[in-house]
Prior knowledge:
The chain is α+β, with helices and mostly antiparallel strands. The chain has helices spanning about 150-165, 280-290, 300-310, 320-350, 360-380, 405-420, 425-435, 440-460, 475-500, 505-525, 535-565, 585-595, 610-620, 620-630, 645-650, 680-690; strands at about 15-25, 35-40, 45-55, 60-65, 70, 80-85, 90-95, 95-105, 115-125, 130-140, 150, 175-180, 185-190, 200-205, 220-225, 225-230, 240-250, 255-260, 580-585, 600-605, 635-640, 660-665, 675, 700. The chain has four domains: about 15-150, Thiol:disulfide interchange protein DsbD, N-terminal domain (Immunoglobulin-like); about 175-260, Sandwich (Immunoglobulin-like); about 280-360 and about 385-475, no CATH class; about 580-700, 3-Layer(aba) Sandwich (Glutaredoxin), CATH 3.40.30. α5 (about 360-380) packs antiparallel against α11, α9 packs antiparallel against α10 (about 505-525) and α14 packs parallel to α16 (about 680-690). It contains 16 helices and 24 strands. It is elongated.
Amino acid sequence: MATAETPTVSESISEPVKAELVAEEQSIQPGRPFWVGVELKMADGWDTYWQNPGDSGFPTQVNWQLPEGFTAGPIEWPYPETFTNESLVAFGYTDTVLLMSKITPPENLKADQPVMLAADVNWLACKDSCVPGNAHLELSLPVTDVAPKVDAQMSALFAEARDALPRQLGLEDGDLSVQMQADEIVMNFMPKLDSFGEIEKMQFIPHEGEVIDYAAPQSFLIGKEGITLNVKTAGNEPEALKGVLLVSEKGSTVKRAIHVDTSGGAASSPVSLDGVSSVGIALLFAFLGGLILNVMPCVLPVIALKIFGFVKMAQEKRSVILKHGGVFSLGVVVSFWVLSGALLVLRAYGEGIGWGFQLQEPIFVAILAGILFLLGLSLFGVFELGTSMISLGNKGASSATSPLKSSFMSGVLATLVATPCTGPLLGPALGFAMTLPPVQALLIFTMMGLGMAFPYLLFSAFPKLVRFLPKPGNWMITFKQLMGFLMMATVVWLVWVFGAQTDNMATFVLLAALLVLAVGGWIFGRWGVPTKRKLTRYVATGVAALMLFVGGGAVISTAKQHRDFAATEVDGVHAVSDGGWEKYSPERVEQLRASGTPVFVDFTAKWCLICQANKAVLRSSDTTKAFEEKGVVTMTADWTKKNPVITAELEKLGRSGVPVYVLYPSNMQDKPVILPQTLSGKVVHEYLDKLETPKTVVQVD
């Protein structure tokens, strides 16, 4: 542990405050910021003061005396306690407090020699009377070229101090609004479900004096519209408000401190939603994002067959084609209603889920794999299911009389395959939708569905647009079989996702079930056709249905058992890392940033094909070298399974689905930077070039 070199304090045993200069790490590295702190230990009954002392006292002052080239950041103040003496109100600390500052050494600092840090500290300690105190503190730290190590005891001390720092109100916490008037400040806080316990008290403390009347009681009222706090001003309406909102929960002695700053026009500062600041903009983004979904990898197996359907219906009446296009669009929109409605209801009941949540459920993945597998067999000609479930029509000549439910189901299937990914523009729109009332949120999801269905609705309304395609002919048979291979590729992907959510045994059962389905489909196609006798058809159909029931039942039962088993395996919130990338941990991110190390997090899922495509960029040798040169620690936040911690972080970032790529700067005061959802090496390098000097990973004993 780095210790202070003869810290100067009063020699008197009755001195009310003892001060010491401490460091979080055992050594420092040239150019790499590190944290130090002034630890004040107060004698029993004594207290020192916060940055705003209240009606009396003065805040603790730290005047740094650093070697040439060193710079010190501002003091990080933990939230204070409130002291009342007759009509006077003060804010400060009892027992122990650590006042942290980030120190940045120069790049040209020579290694293998110690440096001396010094600080003159002044405080006022009060009990029955007040006694000023001061100390000249010194701390010697060695300089090395290797990664500094964190002392476990000091790390715990600094971590406790960081836990007491006021933090920005995130989107996952709730909404805070502030109205400032000449004689009163009105704060309305609407916490998100399960983000806070039962709140029994709130108190606002400004950073500066003469803003509020400290002695006046702050009225606290819980209503349907949230929690309202009325704070009497000191007589003048403030232009902007900065301070700390302390939230006390029933049954807990630990307060939650929220940073309040209206200088930017808002009480809280959640991460920007990339230009989505109104419902109108969100609706536009949702429509365009839904339109772009049609060219995303997730929906490629369906697009080609939709075009195939238009070719088959080329000779039909325009009214028939339009009717099928409208029903297909209805299938897409209704599917979006069902999925978004389920999402909103589950979130209202405290479930930590986001968009694409259905593919976090292995049972759903297995069922979808089985459906696409059967469709692939049908496209190969193993049995005649008809491609109408995917295309707009059934069999060319009979399209006019084919049931419209085929077109409706094609819209459902397209939605199920497309929704796992949030393409460009959808991320901000969906994140914004999660902050809105249910009716407005559903409106945004509806617009997303209309955007996805729009090309097909357009083609059905104007069939002449497909004249550039070849006329129906033998090429369609080859095309259909090629689409069968594409469908099977999708099944392979879903089996991979299923394996990541369960284990080897469950994956084996799924593969065996697909084999059983294949045999059942072959039996149906061989003996269940109209050319066979009625009894033969009935027996073949019954055997095929039985095999479907047995295979599907086995997969669902095994998936449920192994899903539940996997859910009981407690390994923190970490997902399996790959390619040297660390497992994601919000605590680890905070620790690295606090020590001056930037972090890049890949929020991903195996069921997101865009995520897998972007991995080729992120894992390339060129990008890996760029991360290393900038000293960036890379992490994988795998959302393949349900993970409330990752969901909460996505909400904090204003997102509701993956992929999301976030660069956390080394400066704790800087907001995380969200990269585009479609990556290239050039894009990643542009964002990395904006970082400051390279940092090195901290090693913890």
